């Protein structure tokens, strides 16, 4: 089908307007998801059950092994030295004392590092994994304050750390561009995201704003953030002959294997990345310099290497979320209909990465405004490349947008939920595509009722409990449904009725292995203990990013494809003596450890019987799903309604969240237990974003000044109240299992819900995150 | 970490004999020193472990308490006598750090905590007069939201991070020291220094001198005392501002009063001006506010920390109102 | 002399720079104890020393000569889990699992502290004898263990259920 061929190109970056239009207009049945996944209708299987994590016993007993917990014989320990200037050249690097220090095996600098190709930057190729394109330790140039300038390998970590402290570097410093205001004054550039510009216009928004009877127009600022997964970034690497073996903490094993191969000029099959457990990712556990430096140093030393970044090291060389400055202007008629929606602003990136924080993303599909102007401008600073962090775009974009909606609601004297409902779009406001699933109103209805929204005092500062001012706020969150190309899965069915699913996917705590085991069990008609789900290994099929909340869809579609291939193979194998003889794949389904005719379940044969008769021990199939055209055919999004109660101390200004409820519309929930945790986890990171998180970037020298968990505050137990989560559980008819990925939705809307609650409590509108007590005094 | 030797002190005499050697430092719970050594900010060549020395908490003849310097923070906080007679001290200790750290940290070591200023901690990337005297201070024009509003100098604007010490400053504690020259005693409020031109010198300790005990005087009215800590995160965060106070009220008027502030200066800040302003005054909000004004009159804000002045005043008033 | 780790005598490392955490992880391959910051700011390295919780990253191993250390491996094993470990699974008190051993070790000692009457920042009456582990007491006492995945609610539920007699 030509449409699929075209789509392949499209997916590889050749975005064609005409193509998108063709897919939009194609009949549903031509498009993946056009026929609902049969699992959606299945009500009493494993899917939807609160199964406890299958890897739970390993994790609670400390026997789950993370990247830094694998060892090789003859292994040495690495330590990095980081630049202390933002831009310039290394004039002299004195490694003599370090080389002479006890236990030191190798000191690697740009002078003796092996020649390497620059990293392929993310999105430059479907398998590219690099945070930026900068060459790694190949010359004397310094590009940011904190760039690695030397690697020390020693017999012990203590020796390596000490020797690293003995290295002396002299720089020729050049003037770096570090100030956000200064950079803006020099001029901004159009932000591009995954190819196209971050720019949309419908009608004349500025004119409509000027003419609108009621309007709000304000600027919101969000700071830099760091992921701060508790596991430090680490690799344990060895060159085994010509093969590079990497124990990694990764959310993209296949991408990393391919990218490392490009960098070292070897075949992708010569790089094996495994990552059975990842101690938190959130967008941060992609490929950064420590992978490359550890592998290069291992080559120089001829020894396996363990390189665990210090916490400071994580801040120095693993990018975080960039800062944003956003204008949101809303014009409305007195009845609250949006006449104009303007969401524009600027974010900082580097010259060598492709990641402008795309804060207008949520606004594209949120409201049925008559006119819109959306735009992201960028400036390029001499800093560490920023990157994806949980809900890039939406996490901070919804803070600005949903704060503004709250401000408009007050200006209109309309309840903020009612205002949102009056502008709830019936189709995608930009593309005009129908929504695949859109039940925000139901999420609000259920959430408001359960939270007790009706008890909210509309007048700010009206509720006081002793020293504490109490307020309520709400906000909408949204995150797109993505499915990236490249998925593939292998199913190996044994004659004892056990199936193994192999896919190069990832488990960073999302519950993937558990939920996907449930899905596979239902799809194959097997019990949970008859399924083995293998992941986290670049030698397995598929190029599956655990990011963009797309892994659930990617795995789901891949396993559907593999299951289809398995059924075909089984029917062929079953032959003419089977009760299934003569049936086509579309006529059969899996049930109870075998296949049956869809409309005649009694026509059945078990997998074991089929394989036994064919004298086969196993059947093994591998398949890839069709290209993800569905996202061009429907407007596909998750939604949530967030409700927050805060208490702000009238004496000290201390803001504390006392209650929170998230009401989600994210398709069908595969596992309520792990899904609840995902939702809560996003909300808690959103609580941090709202109240305490900020990476301090000193614009005088480009240095991050709080590179520690003592100084970069993430929420502690005392900050986290009991968080209520509910969901519509309405299946999206156009996605595998009717599900959406849910890793990021929880952080969207949370910041604004908290900010709006703080306004309701105090009458103070804080538009600069984080909302610390000094802003509330 | 720079290589170093390690030995355990058998007794105080053994400790001070070895502690006088160049490059030697005493090691308590290690919760700050080990971290600073890992950051190469501290580079001792020998550690003398003094955690085996006295950790006893005993009554003094005059009705106070003597606390062995090796007592763990938790042990001090949970001591029945401390909870009853000096609740401000228990409250201050449990407001600090985390339970794990309080279990490790010694009382003596708590006094010797060094500042958490980010520029001080950035050994090779930032200028700091405390780390490298004469180098300059990157905090004065840098991120200084957490920094001092009282008693700072053009050389240093860092703050002392301890909570426990704020209570000790309020309680008129004394510090018992021992060196090869013999024992001596310092008032707690004289133990820490303001930065002046030599911010690298943080205490009045002589080289090799060992803290052996903290003594709390009998202070009957301290039964009515408390500690309030204001911070960004609800737990496990350093103070932006904290207040330790004890107050005696007779016939509606302030009698004896002790107030100390944390998070505002290079040392635990005894609020003598506020105390003076309060003595004999009616125990009401107006007096408390006037006292707070008096104490903060000399406060000097930096770029990011001006809010601390108002915050400190509010916190002082609120604490006194709680106790009144 | 030696350090006793989960009942086994282990000799003290020659290099006094070796932290208790690195002794466990690198020398003894007891990797259940985690390194999250190596600076006393996250709690992932929490172990028990003679029953008390400490941070093994800030502990020089040599200082613990003669002491008895219990790590997550000594608390329970897959197949013979400690009731709190089981409760963590039931209540989904973790996601990535990295802070989990520290949370569990911390909670075990936390309950002992409360039984002993050690007050916390949120304890109302310092003169009261026993501590009732209210939700606030639990949250405050566990605040030295960071979790970035956001499993806080599940952790609290697991602890409250396991130590119900001490909890409210």
UniProtKB/TrEMBL annotation, chain A:
Residues 61-175 form the Aldehyde oxidase/xanthine dehydrogenase a/b hammerhead domain. Pfam families: Ald_Xan_dh_C (PF01315), MoCoBD_1 (PF02738), MoCoBD_2 (PF20256). The keyword Protein biosynthesis does not apply. Keywords: Molybdenum, Oxidoreductase. GO terms for molecular function: iron ion binding; oxidoreductase activity. PANTHER family: ALDEHYDE OXIDASE 1-RELATED, XANTHINE DEHYDROGENASE. This is Xanthine dehydrogenase family protein molybdopterin-binding subunit. It comes from Sphingomonas naasensis.
Automatic annotation (TrEMBL), chain B:
GO terms for molecular function: FAD binding; oxidoreductase activity. Keywords: FAD, Flavoprotein. It comes from the Bacteria. Residues 1-221 form the FAD-binding PCMH-type domain. SUPFAM superfamilies: CO dehydrogenase flavoprotein C-terminal domain-like (SSF55447), FAD-binding/transporter-associated domain-like (SSF56176). PANTHER family: OXIDOREDUCTASE, XANTHINE DEHYDROGENASE SUBUNIT C-RELATED. This is Xanthine dehydrogenase family protein subunit M.
Automatic annotation (TrEMBL), chain C:
It comes from the Bacteria. Keywords: 2Fe-2S, Iron, Iron-sulfur, Metal-binding, Oxidoreductase. It holds the Pfam family Fer2. The keyword Metal-binding applies. GO terms for molecular function: 2 iron, 2 sulfur cluster binding; metal ion binding; oxidoreductase activity, acting on the aldehyde or oxo group of donors. Residues 1-75 form the 2Fe-2S ferredoxin-type domain. This is 2Fe-2S iron-sulfur cluster binding domain-containing protein. The lineage of its organism: Bacteria, Pseudomonadati, Pseudomonadota, Alphaproteobacteria, Sphingomonadales.
């Amino acid at each position: 089908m030509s449409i699929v061929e075209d789509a392949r190109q499209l997916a590889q970056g050749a975005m064609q307007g005409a193509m998108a239009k063709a897919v939009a207009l194609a009949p549903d049945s031509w498009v993946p998801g056009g026929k609902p996944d049969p699992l959606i209708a299945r009500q009493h299987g494993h899917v939807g059950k609160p199964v406890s994590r299958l890897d739970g016993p390993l994790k609670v007993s400390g026997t789950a092994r993370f990247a830094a917990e694998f060892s090789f014989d003859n292994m040495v320990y690495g330590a990095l030295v980081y630049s202390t200037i933002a831009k310039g050249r290394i004039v002299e690097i004195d490694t003599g004392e370090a080389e002479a220090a006890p236990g030191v095996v190798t000191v690697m600098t740009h002078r003796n590092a092996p020649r390497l190709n620059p990293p392929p930057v993310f999105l430059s190729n479907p398998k590219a994994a690099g945070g930026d394109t900068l060459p790694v330790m190949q010359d004397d140039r310094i590009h940011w304050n904190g760039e690695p300038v030397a690697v020390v390998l020693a017999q012990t970590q203590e020796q390596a750390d000490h020797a690293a402290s003995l290295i002396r570097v002299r720089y020729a410093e050049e003037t770096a561009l570090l100030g956000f205001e200064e950079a803006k004054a020099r001029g901004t550039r159009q932000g591009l995201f995954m190819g196209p510009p971050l720019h949309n216009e419908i009608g004349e928004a500025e004119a409509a704003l000027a003419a609108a009877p009621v309007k709000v127009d304000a600027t919101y600022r969000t700071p830099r953030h760091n992921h701060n997964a508790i596991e430090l970034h680490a690799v344990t690497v060895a060159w085994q002959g010509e093969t590079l073996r990497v124990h990694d903490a990764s959310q993209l094993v296949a991408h990393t294997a391919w990218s490392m191969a490009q960098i070292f000029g070897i075949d992708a099959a010569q790089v094996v990345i495994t990552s059975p457990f990842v101690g938190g990712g959130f967008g941060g556990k992609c490929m950064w310099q420590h992978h490359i430096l550890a592998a290069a140093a291992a080559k120089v030393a001829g020894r396996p290497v363990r390189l665990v970044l210090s916490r400071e090291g994580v801040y120095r060389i693993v990018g975080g979320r960039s800062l944003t400055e956003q204008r949101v202007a809303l014009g409305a008629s007195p009845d609250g209909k949006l006449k104009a929606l303007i969401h524009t602003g600027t974010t900082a990136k580097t010259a060598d990465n492709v990641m402008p924080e795309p804060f207008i993303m949520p606004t594209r599909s949120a409201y049925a405004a008559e006119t819109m102007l959306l735009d992201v401008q960028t400036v390029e600073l001499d800093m560490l490349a920023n990157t994806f962090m949980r809900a890039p775009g939406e996490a901070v974009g919804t803070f600005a947008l949903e704060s503004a909606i709250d401000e408009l609601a007050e200006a209109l004297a309309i309840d903020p939920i009612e205002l949102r409902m009056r502008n709830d779009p019936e189709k995608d406001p930009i593309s005009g595509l129908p929504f695949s699933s859109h039940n925000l109103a139901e999420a609000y209805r259920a959430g408001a009722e359960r939270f007790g929204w009706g008890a909210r005092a509309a007048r700010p500062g009206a509720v006081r409990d002793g020293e504490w001012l109490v307020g309520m706020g709400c906000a909408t969150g949204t995150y797109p449904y993505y499915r990236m190309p490249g998925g593939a899965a292998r199913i190996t069915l044994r004659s004892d009725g056990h199936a193994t699913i192999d896919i190069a996917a990832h488990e960073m705590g999302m519950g993937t292995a558990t939920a996907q085991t449930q899905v596979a069990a239902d799809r194959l008609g097997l019990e949970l203990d008859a399924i083995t789900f293998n992941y986290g290994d670049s030698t397995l099929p598929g190029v599956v990013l655990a990011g963009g909340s797309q892994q659930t869809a990617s795995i789901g579609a891949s396993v559907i494809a593999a299951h289809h291939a398995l059924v075909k193979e089984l029917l062929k194998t079953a032959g003419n003596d089977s009760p299934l003889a003569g049936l086509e794949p579309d006529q059969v389904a899996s049930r109870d450890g075998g296949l049956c005719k869809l409309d005649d379940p009694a026509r059945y044969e078990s997998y074991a019987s089929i394989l036994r008769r064919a004298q086969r021990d196993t059947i093994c199939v591998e398949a890839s799903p069709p290209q993800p055209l569905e996202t061009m055919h429907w407007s596909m999004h998750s939604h949530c309604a967030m409700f927050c109660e805060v208490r702000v101390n009238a004496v000290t200004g201390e803001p504390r969240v006392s209650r929170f409820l998230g009401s989600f519309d994210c398709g069908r929930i595969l596992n309520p237990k792990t899904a609840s945790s995902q939702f809560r986890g996003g909300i808690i990171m959103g609580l941090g974003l709202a109240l305490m998180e900020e990476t301090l970037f000193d614009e005088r020298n480009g240095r991050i000044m709080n590179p520690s968990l003592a100084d970069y505050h993430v929420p502690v137990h005392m900050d986290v109240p009991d968080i209520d989560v509910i969901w519509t559980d309405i299946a999206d008819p156009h996605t595998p299992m009717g599900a959406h990925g849910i890793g990021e939705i929880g952080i969207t809307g949370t910041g604004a819900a908290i900010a709006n609650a703080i306004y309701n409590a105090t009458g103070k509108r804080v538009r600069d995150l984080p909302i610390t007590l000094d802003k509330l005094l | 970490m720079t290589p170093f030797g390690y030995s355990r002190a058998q007794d105080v005499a053994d400790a001070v004999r070895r502690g006088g050697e160049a490059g030697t430092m005493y090691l308590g719970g290690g919760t700050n020193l080990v971290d600073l050594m890992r950051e190469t900010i501290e580079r001792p060549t020998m550690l003398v472990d003094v955690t085996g020395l006295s950790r006893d908490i005993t009554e003094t003849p005059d009705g106070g308490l003597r606390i062995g310097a090796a007592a763990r923070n938790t042990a001090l906080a949970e001591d029945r006598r401390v909870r009853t007679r000096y609740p401000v001290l228990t409250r201050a200790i449990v407001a600090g750090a985390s339970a794990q750290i309080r279990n490790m940290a010694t009382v003596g070591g708590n006094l010797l905590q060094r500042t958490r200023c980010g520029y001080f901690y950035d050994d090779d990337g930032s200028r700091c007069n405390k780390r490298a005297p004469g180098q300059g201070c990157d905090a004065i024009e840098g991120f200084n939201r957490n920094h001092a509003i009282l008693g700072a100098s053009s050389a240093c604007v860092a703050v002392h991070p301890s909570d426990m010490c704020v209570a000790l400053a309020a309680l008129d504690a004394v510090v018992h020291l021992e060196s090869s020259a013999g024992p001596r005693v310092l008032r707690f409020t004289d133990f820490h220094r303001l930065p002046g031109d030599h911010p690298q010198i943080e205490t009045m300790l002589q080289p090799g001198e060992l803290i052996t005990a903290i003594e709390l005087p009998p202070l009957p009215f301290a039964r009515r005392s408390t500690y309030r800590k204001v911070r960004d995160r609800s737990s496990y965060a350093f103070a932006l501002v904290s207040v330790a106070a004890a107050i005696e009220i007779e016939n509606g008027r302030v009698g004896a009063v002790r107030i100390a502030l944390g998070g505002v200066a290079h040392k635990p800040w005894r609020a003598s001006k506020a105390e003076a302003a309060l003595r004999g005054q009616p125990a009401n909000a107006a007096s408390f506010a006037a006292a707070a004004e008096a104490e903060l009159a000399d406060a000097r804000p930096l770029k990011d920390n001006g809010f601390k002045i108002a915050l400190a005043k509010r916190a002082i008033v609120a604490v006194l109102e709680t106790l009144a | 002399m030696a350090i006793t780790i989960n009942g086994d005598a282990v000799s003290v490392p020659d290099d006094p720079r070796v932290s208790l955490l690195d002794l466990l992880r690198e020398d003894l391959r007891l990797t259940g104890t985690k390194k999250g910051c190596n600076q006393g700011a996250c709690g992932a390295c929490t172990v028990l020393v003679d029953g008390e919780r400490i941070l093994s990253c800030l502990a020089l191993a040599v200082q613990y000569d003669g002491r008895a250390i219990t790590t997550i491996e000594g608390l329970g094993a897959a197949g013979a889990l400690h009731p709190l470990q089981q409760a963590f699974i039931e209540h989904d008190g973790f996601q990535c699992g990295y802070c989990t051993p520290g949370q569990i070790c911390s909670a075990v000692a936390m309950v002992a502290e409360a039984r002993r009457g050690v007050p916390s920042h949120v304890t109302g009456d310092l003169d009261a004898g026993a501590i009732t582990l209210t939700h606030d007491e639990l949250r405050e006492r566990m605040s030295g263990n960071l979790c970035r995945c956001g499993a806080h609610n599940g952790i609290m539920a697991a602890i409250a259920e396991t130590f119900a007699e001490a909890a409210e």
